[in-house]
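request received
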Amino acid sequence: GEDVEQSLFLSVREGDSSVINCTYTDSSSTYLYWYKQEPGAGLQLLTYIFSNMDMKQDQRLTVLLNKKDKHLSLRIADTQTGDSAIYFCAERGDAGNMLTFGGGTRLMVKP
Amino acid sequence: NAGVTQTPKFQVLKTGQSMTLQCAQDMNHEYMSWYRQDPGMGLRLIHYSVGAGITDQGEVPNGYNVSRSTTEDFPLRLLSAAPSQTSVYFCASRSPQAGVSYEQYFGPGTRLTVT
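response:
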């Protein structure tokens, strides 16, 4: 099946930028997503990017997509302690109904 | 709106016991899904439904049954629990009109332990 990979853990200092990376294998991916999971809660959609785009910016969030290398990243500018959470990358193939999730990256922000 | 609600929050079962995880949403969403979350493995789709009376299997359906008699409710049944089903279970819903954002609304999760 299709695969989505993420590193498990990232630690940054408050005020620094965070970059969370994701690689995927499905060459037919149409949309790619970033979800955030805070402790004890379900996932919440942060942002998404269409596969024919290279970049999308939304306030402190910047998504970069390298479709050739099948690499997606999420940059959080001026990271705050409230950004501490698990971040999941997900891709949607051209079949439509299902998302494939990565294993999640736990972001820890130190004051 | 309460959004997506799940009960119970926590459950401990013995191997071989059965139980039903409840999921309800009050947003009139047609699409509902069940996922399980295991450490380092992200979310894996168990079953999903695109409307009342319609269900389909996801990536890891074995050992689980679902039904969808109403738009609001989508229960997940474990017929004979096994330790491999120890996990956190999330229910999610979305509207087909969510379009390309594909935004799913997740419940708070049920943490299940099978001993």
